[in-house]
């Protein structure tokens, strides 16, 4: 099984960025732990992070035909990006939306997502564990 882990803007700042909301772990540490979980499940996991909307769109397009599922934390694009929503609809790859923080318990502008109604599932508020839960769920639904 091939899974793409996609992380949007400012997630490269994890560890330094508002650790009370997003935790102490860096993105590198999170991805490393996830890679080892994936290997144990015989899942091939690719990772891509970008602060640029177009780069994320291009990476989603490139996933067509070679990726079974996507784990996506769109960062602030969650609340703004119809273009990323359309990219996911274009490739018809199932995805799980993950947020480290519980966006529903935060500012009103974070409570709407352009992705949740088209996602296979949504995980929010469980920190980095959310990525692991998404990986496990996708693996189980594929076997
Ligand atoms: C986030 C929540 C978003 O509202 C925010 O803009 C982020 C991170 C999360 O993981 O909790 O960048 O997606």
UniProtKB/TrEMBL annotation:
SUPFAM superfamilies per the UniProt record, alphabetical: Type II 3-dehydroquinate dehydratase (SSF52304)
NCBIfam families, alphabetized: aroQ (TIGR01088), PRK05395.1-1 (NF003804), PRK05395.1-2 (NF003805), PRK05395.1-3 (NF003806), PRK05395.1-4 (NF003807)
Function field: Catalyzes a trans-dehydration via an enolate intermediate.
Protein name: 3-dehydroquinate dehydratase
Domain of life: Bacteria
Pfam families: DHquinase_II (PF01220)
InterPro entries (UniProt xref): DHquinase_II, DHquinase_II_CS, DHquinase_II_sf
Record-level Gene Ontology MF annotations: 3-dehydroquinate dehydratase activity
Catalysed conversion reaction: 3-dehydroquinate = 3-dehydroshikimate + H2O
Pathway involvement of the protein, from the record: Metabolic intermediate biosynthesis; chorismate biosynthesis; chorismate from D-erythrose 4-phosphate and phosphoenolpyruvate: step 3/7
Organism field: Salinimonas profundi
EC number: 4.2.1.10
Gene giving rise to this polypeptide: aroQ
Similarity field: Belongs to the type-II 3-dehydroquinase family.
Signal sequence region: none
Site label Transition state stabilizer, positions: 17
List of residues binding substrate: 73, 79, 86, 100-101, 110
């Amino acid at each position: 099984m091939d899974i793409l882990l996609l992380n949007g803007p400012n997630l490269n700042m994890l560890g330094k960025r508002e650790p009370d909301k997003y935790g102490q772990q860096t993105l590198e540490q999170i991805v490393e732990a996830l890679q080892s979980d994936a290997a144990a499940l015989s899942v091939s996991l690719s990772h891509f992070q970008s602060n640029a909307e177009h780069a994320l769109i291009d990476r989603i397009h490139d996933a067509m035909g070679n990726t079974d599922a996507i784990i996506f934390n769109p960062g602030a694009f969650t609340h703004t990006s119809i273009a990323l929503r359309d990219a996911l609809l274009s490739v018809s790859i199932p995805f799980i939306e993950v947020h480290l923080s519980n966006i529903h318990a935060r500012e009103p502008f974070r409570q709407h997502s352009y992705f949740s109604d088209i996602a296979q599932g949504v995980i929010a508020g469980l920190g980095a564990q959310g990525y692991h839960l998404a990986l496990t769920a996708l693996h189980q639904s594929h076997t």
